[in-house]
Amino acid sequence: MTDAEVLVVGGGSTGCGIARDLAMRGVDVTLVEKGNLTNGTTGRMHGLLHSGARYAVSDQPSASECIEENRVLRDIASHCVEMTGGQFVQLEGDDDEYFEEKLKGCRECGIPADVLTAEEAREEEPYLSKDVKRSIRVPDGAIDPFRLCVANAASAQEHGARIETHTEVTDVLLDESDDEVRGLEVRHDSGPGKHEHGRAGETEKITAEYVVNATGAWAGQIGEMAGVDVEVRPSKGVMVVMNCRQVDTVINHCRPKGDADIVVPHETTAILGTTDEEVSDPEDYPEEQWEVDMMIDQLSKLVPILQEARTVRSFWGVRPLYEPPGTGTTDPTDITRDYFLLDHEERDGLSSFTSIVGGKFTTYRMMAEEISDHVCEQLGVSAECQTADEPLPGSEDFSVLRDYMDEFGLRSPVGRRSVQRLGSRADDVLKTGEPNPVLCDCEAVTRAEVRDAIDQSGTDLNAVRIRTRASMGNCQGGFCCHRMANELFPEYDESQAYDALDELFEERWKGERHALWGEQLSQAALNYALHATTMNRDRPLKGEDTDFAAFDSGVETEIPEPVADERGERGD
Amino acid sequence: MAIEDDVTVVGGGLAGLTTALSAARAGAQVRLLSHKDSTLRSASGLVDVLGYRPESAAEATAPIVDPFEAISDLPESHPYSKVGESGVRDALALFDEVVGDAYQGSHTDRNALLATHGGEVKPTARYPASAAAGLTSDTREALLVGFETVVDFDAPLVASHLESSGVPFDVRGATVRFPGDFRADAKLTRLADALDSDERVEVREETGSAGYAESLPARQALAEVVKPHLDGAERVGFPALLGQHDPAEVRASLESELGAAVFEVPMGPPSLPGMRLEGKLLGACREAGVRMTTGNPVVGYETAGGTDDDGDRIAAVRVERNGAAIPFHAEQFVLATGGLVGKGIDSNRSGVREPIFDCYVPHPDDRYDWFAAEAFGEHPFARFGVETDDDMRVLDAGGESDFSNLRAAGAVLGGFDFAATKSGAGVSLATGRAAGLAAAREVSE
Amino acid sequence: MSEIEDSNDENTVREEEAVENDEFEPVQVFPESEEMDLRPGSDDCYKCSTCDTNCPVAQVDDEFPGPKFQGPEQWRLKRKEDHDIDDSVMSCSNCMRCDDACPSDVPLSQMHNTARGEYVESQMEKLSQEYIRNRILANYRTMAELGSKVPRLTNFVMGLGVTKLFNEKVLGITSEREFPDFAEETFREWWSDRGGPKVRSEDKRVAYFHGCYSNYNTPKVGKAMVRVFESFGYEVVVPKQRCSGTPMFANGMLEDAKRAAGINVENFSGLIEEGYDVIASCTSCSMSLRQEYPELFSFDGTASVAAHTYEALEYLRLHEDLEAALEAGEVEAGNFAYHAPCHARNQGLAGQPVELFESLDGATAEDVGPSCSGISGTYGWKEEKYDASMQIGAEMFDHMEEAEGEVGMTECPTCAMQMEHGTGYEIRHPLEVLEAALVE
Q: Which residues does chain A have within 8 Å of residue C74's beta carbon, measured at their own beta carbons?
């Protein structure tokens, strides 16, 4: 008897998708993730829900898959998706032929595509450059990868799955003859800001009948522990986050593939992307100034206001690109975006172990379905996949048209944003019967929403952040990190709350550093003044060392005259 | 023709007000030009003179007991080197006189240690009288009271953190609901006003299953909410919202209701102690005859022609107002427009500048050298600002004065990290006073 | 709409008909569909809340969330398809103090004006009492135009208890306030009887924007303005003009404002090309031409009008040696309790009379502090806002009582109403004192 039927490694979109799929088919599944959910590539993308148009010239099979999954996700993940629509914009001087090819490709792949005149394009998006020649309108959308991943994990849990975050694989357990995978050895991390587990800091051996390696760019590292080669070619891309939405539709530059050609309206922000550069280590690569500058300079040709607009941070993601051995592509932009299911029994003679590599976020569910089919076949499970039809938690029937003030006591924009995030869970979360002040002003996140996220993810405030968007707005946490940490106490003790605060504050700083000029430098200076000068958080006291008596002991203090008849009430 | 004064001060924060006051008291006709409200309203209201040595110093993490003694150890770049210990002392004397009994700390050279709303303990030289009973060197047992909707201050967590920091007193925290039917997003200033005017608020008391409502004056109602948590505490701390206009009276009422000393814990923006301090300084300036013109930005200047040996002279600054530029003439000018936060220093992707006079602001060329890797690291950006000579005249890249009649004061000055050293208010006061006096002196000459 | 007709003052029949037929039909705001997107304005906000601490409405109205929420936060949270503006925007009095407060250049009042316009357009019931009442208040000029035809009758009727009761119960206009009396002769009638300018000049020429109040209610201010400027040798012209738009902005009636602004910009920008500068005696009118027009409209000439508009005293100060002239003058005016209107504050004019009268024998102006008078144009006329308006004004009333003078002074006609209403003082305009001091 094993601890679980299937062990999934990796808490990104693919891993969570697989866990959900298998759990819904009645398989006993455990997922382990070394950080929080979306810690890897999923949490570091621009949030584009592809229509497929991007691949309509270069990679038509991917394009067709994208439009198919695009439609599925609109149904099952409505609270994660904003159907913004998108444009492929041709500027004066851009290649006409490519534009025509793109249009033709879209039509061949079944992607709805209309040509807009320059005027129509600019009417839809007033901040587009006056140099627009024409554009193709396609059903691109925006999707919140955090919310999607969390909803998949939550659904998996509802169906009996065990989800373990902050749980790093330390070894792959093999049988005596090294030809079958029997499970994993993991270490439960419980340091500052981590989810608190029953088994803090322990290692655990989890046995399983089958192990799925869904670690994307990290797949090679897990493969190595099992003694197999998985040659992922990680490729980094930069994303620059603007303070507000300059565009409400996805704006793509219609030209053969190149860097800095997309602006995605994402929640309250716009995200500029991206680059494509191969790196050797998915966790250790340079994050450079020129990459940020290139995004702003190139994309302001499409949307000129970007040149002067406020940037709040930048981040880099690593694509888990893969190509079969011997293909020999040198330019990462030429590597296929298709995914590969590597059955290690077939490939390496190591049974009960499969890796999934390559692919893209939009088709995560399809990949999960295929690998779940494969695993079920191995296990002799005959249940059908239901993930294309069954809405994710939060996306069941709900209406965003409500009277937020009456229902939740919230100002309408605050209520609207909360409901957009929570979907059908809004009632459960927001109806608390207590005062529900806004903790994060920039993103309109209330105390109730933060507490709900803490219920899910414990002291990991970064996990709270991705669930709620608290601290992701223009102040980048300067005004709300401490408010979020306050909510941990007294359920968690004082030192955990302070450690969690420090961790979140540093994480916010890490990305904000790439936007330090103009307004954001002023903001950073204000945040620094608030946390260092006003709160003195840069110089916490070192306990016993301080000789309090050496400092000002105050002037003679008057002892206030107590109100006589009130004295009896003192104490309780 | 036109508007003409002896001394024109640009910027209405702590430094600008101190400059204007000093110059006016020295007999000059002073005009203060300010565009917007200053960051003084966002600051905690504590007057830091020198709390820590610069980060590079060995004892950087230990709070300084005697800031005056430590001034001479500061590096040359710190603005205190222009005014010296005596300049700092004189500026504090001016401050003490202006604020009167609204502030304490002048009875000793030693720093006081106060609890911040973030739960840490901070050294400062002058503190609002409203915060006095909160000194952490005081050994009396304390109760901290927070409010459900005042989300920047979590009293139980702060109390717990203070205890773990080793403060020499017992401290507990309680979170209560502010009495009355205020919305969850009621402003701090609104709650303060309710206490100021002691307006009657609805209080619901649960008695068995049937609750009944009565109305009480706000201060009494607040005391009633706090009493069950008192449990022998000799002092009670609240987030700084105890009255906007009359904090002493609000405090006195609460003290007599509670039978315990009452203090405020200074908060971040919007900061009532900061606003009260601004009020005191504005009052003093008005009394000294300072003319104030607010609401429009100074965007440039006019020179009188560069015939002087000691550089060009500024004849007027230009105030922009919807496309028109209004000149304000004066003999002497003082720049007190603040740092990066107050926007006296501006930046873009390629550089850092002082936007009005384009004064020299030393900074690394590569913007990735403007910051440290850690959030509380030794940030070069915190030191951005203009340089001056010992008479507070602004210097150019070659160390010469840009304009013979332009001085600078306060956070627009570079070379020091006000947050790390906790010396921001002290620098504004000391350099403001020095610049104001120097400008007035030249006028009278 | 009456405002859109190019009706002139003589054509009274036509004007009245137009009012009767069209005045209160629903408006189509932004027929040209100039989508206004102010989200980029949120780029400047760094969340310090200084605006909130300066908002007089937030201080007394617990339902009002304050300018930070109304402005940068609400806009930043907006997606293109989101149309629900929080209804609290209707409680903003448009005093514009938040603009003055923000240390970081957020275009707060512009955001409020735009949000209010959108709210009125898409969310407000056009047959509601509130809409109709706001429309009437916003179009004060229309009412004044009618009332001043028969000033004595109008003054009598407006003073009747039954009229006040009707206004309060049916329209939601407070009965606590006295309607301002209409002058027996409007400023424009006086100007026309006088035969226009008495001084002609090639290089010193100003075009007077008198606004509605000086025309219909206090022509003495307008006359003082003319006489003072003529005494300095200026040619004064008085072009045709509409309401500056101030009450329309405050009530979200952007279409009404746009029509009025279009006419004003056209008439005044033409004169600017001929070398005239624009002078206003009401600080809300000058505020409107200077700031709100360029923020909200883009007619040809809008920027030019903004750049060439001045408040009367400001203009003289900049172009004449006003201090010397006042030093030579003398009045028997005594001490004034001076209140700087919020809109004067925003233009950097707050301390002007105080400074200027320092050099004048026989008059002093004592500043009664930076608080808002609370009336904010039409705000204090609304039945449901009256109490809040008086609460806001309380600080100013106290300071006026404390001040030495027993006569009030301000540049803003509605602030003057509030000062009079709260203290019983007679209220003067600084130009009246200037006239007494400088004009024979």
A: 413
- Chain A residue numbers touching B223 (CB-CB < 8 A): 566
d(CA A280, CA B43): 47
Q: Residue A406, class by beta-carbon neighbours within 10 Å (0-12 exposed, 13-18 middle, 19+ buried)?
A: exposed
Q: Tell whether omega for the bond before C309 is within 30 degrees of 0, i.e. cis.
A: no
Q: B211: which residues sit within 8 A by CB, 6+ positions away? A: B204, B205
Contact: C43, A417; criterion CB under 8 Å: no
Question: Cβ–Cβ of A244/C86 closer than 8 Å?
Answer: no
Is residue A128 within 8 A of residue A251, CB to CB? The reply is yes
Percent of chain C residues past pLDDT 90, beyond the cut: 61
> Do the beta carbons of residue A489 and residue A501 sit within 8 Å?
no
The nearest alpha carbon in chain B to A524 belongs to B341
Please calculate the CA angle A69-A73-A74 and round it to the nearest 5 degrees.
120
Gap between the Cα atoms of B252 and B249, Å rounded: 5
**B270 vs A contacts (CB less than 8 Å):** none
Q: For tokens 């030249």, what's the residue?
A: B442
- Residue C9 confidence (pLDDT): 40
Q: Please, are residues A395 and A424 in contact by the beta-carbon 8 Å criterion?
A: yes
Amino acid C22: pLDDT? 37
**CB contacts < 8 Å between B and C, how many?**
106
Find, in chain B, the residue whose alpha carbon is nearest to that of A548: B137
Question: Which residues in C have their CB inside 8 Å of a CB on A?
Answer: 35, 37, 39-40, 42-48, 65, 68-69, 73-82, 84-88, 104
Sort out which chain B residues have CB atoms less than 8 A from C308's CB and list them. 324
A181 to A173, A352, A373, B331: CA distances (angstroms): 6, 6, 19, 85
Lowest mean pLDDT among A263-272, C5-14, C271-280: C5-14
Q: Annotate A455-509 with three-state secondary structure.
A: HHHCCCHHHHHHHHCCCCCCCCCCCCHHHHHHCCCCCCCHHHHHHHHHHHHHHHH
Its pTM stands at 0.91
- Given C40, C43, C65, which is nearest A411 (Cβ)? C65
Yes or no, beta carbons of A513 and B137 under 8 Å apart: no
Chain B environment of C63 (Cβ under 8 Å): 183
Q: Across the interface, do A563 and B259 touch by the CB < 8 Å criterion? A: yes
| Shortest CA gap A89–chain B (Å) | 27
pLDDT band at A196 (very low <50, low <70, confident <90, very high): low
Cα distance between residue A174 and residue A352, in whole Å: 10
Where does residue C66 rank: exposed (0-12), middle (13-18), buried (19+ CB within 10 A)? buried
Q: In which band, very low, low, confident or very high, does the pLDDT at B407 lie, cut at 50, 70 and 90?
A: very high
The confidence score (pLDDT) of residue C7 equals 37
Q: Buried b / exposed e across C17-52, counting CB within 10 Å, b at 16+?
A: ebbeeebeeebebeeeeeebbbbbbbbbbbbbbbbb
Residues found in chain B: 445
CA angle C176, C180, C183 (to 5 degrees): 160
| β-pair partners for A90 | A134
By C-alpha distance, the chain C residue nearest A518 is C44
- Please state at what angle helix B188-196 crosses helix B272-287, rounded to 10 degrees: 70
The pLDDT assigned to B1 comes to 56
Closest CA–CA distance from residue A142 to any residue of chain B (Å) = 29
Pairs of residues, one from chain A and one from chain B, whose beta carbons lie less than 8 Å apart: 244
Helical packing angle, B218-230 and B188-196, nearest 10°: 100
| Over residues A354-373, mean pLDDT | 95
Beta-carbon separation of A411 and C88 below 8 A? yes
Residue-wise pLDDT for C296-338, tens only, equals 998 999 999 999 999 999 999 999 999 999 999 989 888 999 9
Exposed, middle or buried: residue B393 (CB in 10 Å: 0-12, 13-18, 19+)?
buried
